[in-house]
Structure formats: structure tokens, C-alpha cells
Design goal:
The protein has 231 residues and is an alpha/beta fold. Helix 2 crosses helix 3. The chain is 42% helix and 18% strand. It binds pyridoxal-5'-phosphate. Pyridoxal-5'-phosphate binds next to strand 8.
Amino acid sequence: MNSILQKRVDDIRNRIQNALCSCGRRSDDITLIAVSKTVPAETIKAGIHSGLSIFGENYIQEAKQKIDTIADPSVTWHFIGHLQSNKAKYAVRLFDLIHTVDSLKLAAELDRQAQKNNKLQNILLQVNVGMEASKSGVSPNDVLDLTRSISCLNHVKIKGLMTIPPVYNSPERVAPYFQNLRKLRDMIREENIPNVEMNELSMGMTGDFEVAIREGATLIRIGTAIFGERE
Ligand SMILES: *Cc1c(COP(=O)(O)O)cnc(C)c1O
């Protein structure tokens, strides 16, 4: 397993390099998040051994167990699943970056919990660029207003935007959604809202990360290409 994992990690790093190079970007403006939902702690440890250092988890309960088991201070954890306000407490304790904030209510609860923990909680706003009923995320029309409201909270800090685009079998078809997320980020950034840093774009998964890199992704979330198919 270890050598298979090492090979997959090396392959992904090479593909990231190639994607960056072919659009003239520098290699240090991208962060690889290894999506480890459903992956056992032992395999994550092997991943750490293979050079991975940032992991993305979707479920609070599962993440808490694995983070406690692995207990490695050199590793950081990102939350990328749907977050309910009543789990905000745990999310603040466990995660450096929460990618999926899509309401003032959730942000306010994260703010409250972060204050209790003496923490400044970094967050991204999840945008539903495809306007799909089945997906969470704020609609593109509301993201500026939401950014302004959240900017008034002192214990959360907006670092950028995240999206999960509609599923297509051709990665090129998702490019317009990535472009829209980037335009939204640039538009909000120009507003220079105090306490808001609109630099990050969390977009791109196993099937489409090369397109996402070309369209400006700064954080890519890759599960299957590293850990194999999930059950
Ligand atoms: C599961 C998941 C991923 C990883 O998807 P892969 O296709 O396995 O790379 C990325 N982002 C989110 C939000 C996920 O839930």
C-alpha cells in the first residue's frame, strides 16, 4: 500500500507541476489538500509518510476520531463537508480552514465558538455556481452581501471562495463555473472590505483539477486520485 500511495502522490505532484507550467503559473501558488473522507487513520499516516500534510474531511465525527488517533502536529486539517451550526463547536476545535460557510447564521456560530477558543477561524464561502437545488452554497448573486455581513464578525476571517461545480463527464465543461468563481472573487476583492482577504479559490477535484489550476485555483481537493475509489 505504501509504495502505491507514494506513486500516486508523486504522480499528482507531477500533474500539478505540469498544469501550472503549461499556463505559466508558479509552483508555490497551489496547495494540495488530500481528501481523506472514509480513509482509515493508518492509510492517512502512510500518506503523511508520502509527503502529504494537509487533509480534507467531510464528517465531523469521523474526522475527530482520526485526528485524535493521528495526533500529528505537523499536519493540518480542512473541513470540506456540509456543516451544521450545532457542529460548529467541533469544527472550530479541529480545523484550520473551513471551506463550506454559506450563511450568516453558520458564520455567527463559528464566530461565537472561535471567541470562546481564543481563535481566529479562517473560512471560505461556498458558492453554488451551478445554482443547483441539490447543492449547498450561497448563490452567486448573494455572495457579496454575505461577505459584507460576515466581515463584521471579529473571530472569523474570510480567505476566499470555494465551489463544487455541476458534474459533467468532460472537465472542459466545468471551466465556465471555475471562471465564474474567479470573477466573483476578483469582484469582491476590488471592494476592499475590511477584515476580508479574497485570495483563495478552492476548486478542482480528481476529475477536473488541471482545468481548475488553469482557471486560477489556489487550493485543490483531491481524494480518489490519491487514495483510490471510495467504498
Ligand atoms: C469528496 C470530495 C472531494 C474529492 O473528490 P475526488 O473526486 O475523490 O477527488 C473534493 N471536494 C469535496 C467537497 C468532496 O466532498
